[in-house]
Amino acid sequence: MTRSHHSALLTKSTRYAIQACAYLAVHANGDLYRPISEIATALSIPFHFLKKVMAELAQQGIIASQRSARGGVALAKDPRQIALLDIMAAIDGDDIFKECLLGLPGCGEEKPCPMHTAWSTERNRLKLMFSSTTLADIATRIQIKGSRIA
Fold first, then answer.
1. C-alpha angle with apex 22: 122 to 73, nearest 5 degrees?
2. Which has the least CB within 10 A, 1, 68, 72, 108?
3. What is the dihedral of CA 124, 125, 128, 133, to 10 degrees?
4. Model confidence pLDDT, tens digit, residues 70-115
5. What are the angstrom distances between the C-alpha of 99 and each of 93, 102, 103, 112, 124?
6. Domain ranges of the chain
7. Which CATH topology does 12-143 take?
8. Under 8 Å between Cβ of 76 and 57
9. Residue 8 above 80 pLDDT?
């Protein structure tokens, strides 16, 4: 079995969405729109893939898009009002916080899988982390602590 460099927890679309929104939170000057091509280049994300992700975020009200010479995308709300969970739900829904870790249908309190109790606890902790971490928090970690998004 070979090790993959992919995160199983978050899909590629969700990872790109969080990275792009973090980029917007860091580079937001007022309501300045940033071209998707700029974001794709800065984060080494394929442009057409990011364009689809950003269209989904716009449809869900996370970002605003503007078509013009100075157009592009911008956060639709204050970064303090956008939790990572909002971005995850906009792209992939919140099934990760409902599904059985082993993918067994009907897993629950009455017919639990061997991982049900442990996964329920960790799933709730993860949901709390993603719902209590905002884009403003991420931007601060990037600007002050030197954390990276690409």
1. 130
2. 1
3. -150
4. 679 999 999 999 999 999 999 999 888 888 989 899 988 899 999 9
5. 12, 8, 7, 12, 12
6. 12-143
7. Arc Repressor Mutant, subunit A (1.10.10)
8. no
9. no
